[in-house]
Structure formats: structure tokens, C-alpha cells
Amino acid sequence: MRRLMATMAVVLATTGLLTACGSSGTAKTGSEGSSTKPLVIDVTFSGDSVTPNGDRVDVARDQSVEFVVKADEAGEIHVHSTPEKELEYRAGTTELTVGPFDTPGMIEVESHALDKTIVQLQVK
Ligand SMILES: [Cu+2]
After folding, report:
1. This prediction's pTM
2. 11 C-alpha vs ligand 1 centroid, how far in Å?
3. 79 C-alpha vs ligand 1 centroid, how far in Å?
4. Of the candidate ranges 3-7, 21-25, 44-48, the one whose mean pLDDT is the lowest
5. How many A from CA of 121 to the centre of ligand 1?
6. Confidence band for 11, pLDDT divided at 50, 70 and 90
7. Range 29-42 average pLDDT
8. Alpha-carbon gap, residue 121 to 124, rounded angstroms
9. What are the C-alpha distances in Å from 56 to residues 1, 26, 33, 94?
10. Which residues contact 83 (CB under 8 A, 6 or more apart)?
11. What average pLDDT does this structure show over 71-99?
12. Cα of 115 from ligand 1 centre, angstroms
């Protein structure tokens, strides 16, 4: 029991140190999937239109993006990340997850079938 307490004290101290010097950190590992929740974007396809339509959305660099696609017909979303990704969805509701993206910049998410930009992900 005492040993467990000691271990926890060490963990807490280590966490404190990481927080103290975290702002200038470059690529940190070890925090995958735990701290940052995915950004959820609802996408609705209906006939020739899609919502959202070209909105700009900020995404943290260690954050993944989950698209909740509601569509009247199957199709695909094109994500202009590096490498590019094509995500297929079906009629009805499909959840698609991309990222996290490790390079800052703008990533266009498009429907080529509709020739429309759905969102622009601004990775920071
Ligand atoms: Cu494209």
C-alpha cells in the first residue's frame, strides 16, 4: 500500500514537470488517445448539397477528427492530408475518423462528386 502511494507521488511529480515545460515541446509521445478528444463534425449530404459547406474548423495537432456523415446516398469524402485519404460512407449514418495530423496547415475535405468543399481543417 505504501509502495502504491509512493508510485502515485512519482507520477504526480512527473506530470507536474511535463506541464511546466510543455509549451515548447515538439513531438511528444505517450499521450495518444488519452487527453485529447476527437473533434466531431456532423456532415449531411442531401441531393446536390452538403452541410457544412466550406467552413473553417480549428483542429489541434494531436487531435483526430470524427465525421458523422448522414447521407441519402453512398459516396466518399476526400481528405487532402498527406497522404490523401478517401473515406467511403454509405446511405444512412457512417462514422469516419481521420488524424491526428502531425503537420500544421490547412487540409481541405471535399466531395468530388458534388465538387464542393465540406470543411477546411486548420491544423495548429
Ligand atoms: Cu479532393
Report:
1. 0.71
2. 45
3. 6
4. 21-25
5. 13
6. low
7. 71
8. 9
9. 51, 25, 24, 22
10. none
11. 96
12. 9
